[in-house]
Amino acid sequence: MAIRPPILQSGDTIGIVTLGSPLDASTIDARIGTLGDMGFNVVVGKYAYAYGGIVAATAAQRAEDLMSMFVNPNVSMILPTRGGTGVKDILPLLDYPLINSHPKIVTGYSDITILLNILFQFANLITFQSLLLIDFNPNTPAYNFDQFYAATSTLVSPRVIQNPPSMPLNGLVKGTVRGQIVGGNLTSFVGTLGTPFEVNTVGKIIVIEETHEPTNAIYRYLTQLIMAGKFRDCVGIVMGQCTNCTTSYATSYNDLISGIIVPLGKPLLTNFSTAHGLYKAAIPIGAMAELDTYANKLTILEPTVTG
């Protein structure tokens, strides 16, 4: 069983870090103001405002910021400003035994999902594909905050992750399986194949989503994961949205799912609200779940934080 981080409560302190691409200071400050209005205290990493081009700061500096939040006894949750590019280069620099002994809530999506999965694999810590600092603004749908708090601020179990009413889920391959959840951003996963930090899907339910990619690129990425055995090893598949993805060769994202993923024969749920979409489900990486594609349900079987 994976380690559950302590529950998030009003008045807790959130540590802000930039682990991939930089974010402008005015946006960071505005979102920190929102956190304050919501009743949280904030600690800002030394390099959170850094701008080093494609990445905010060196890998060593970004890793230092992250580790400083894990060892800070006042910090309850670690919240990256954004994803972007470059998160994976901090992975060799992290102290996983120390993280294991100082569990904290870590949340995010996009390139951050590589970190989330590796914290589960190397430190046995449940993490959350959920909100980034940029999402703490007045335009974020209530659904996203409801999902975030259901995962990080309650001990409710079991918990069905439900899409908004306007987004029906679709079970394309029927079945019922149980396993720990892994998953996140497709491009980011492919970028770790052949490294010590590729995602382990053995016996797992895998969740996949993508953004701003043409479907010919999605075809490449999905077939690469298939050839790497990632879908062979998993027990079930949840396909999230491909947000703002363009159609290539008259082949849509849904066409790819039907032509490439359905024939794999694994229980398959599609149209899941994820990450880069307007509506963002909170998916606990490392938690035990049941995927039931007869009922079109993904149910988290355990509390994902501890009281």
TrEMBL record:
Keywords, alphabetical: Carboxypeptidase, Hydrolase, Protease, Serine protease
SUPFAM superfamilies named in the record: Class I glutamine amidotransferase-like, LD-carboxypeptidase A C-terminal domain-like
InterPro entries assigned: Carboxypeptidase_A_C_sf, Class_I_gatase-like, LdcA_N, Peptidase_S66_N, Peptidase_S66C, S66_fam
Keyword Membrane set for record: no
Limits of the LD-carboxypeptidase C-terminal domain: 178-291
Family assignment from sequence similarity: Belongs to the peptidase S66 family.
Record protein name field: Murein peptide carboxypeptidase
Natural source organism: Paenibacillus allorhizoplanae
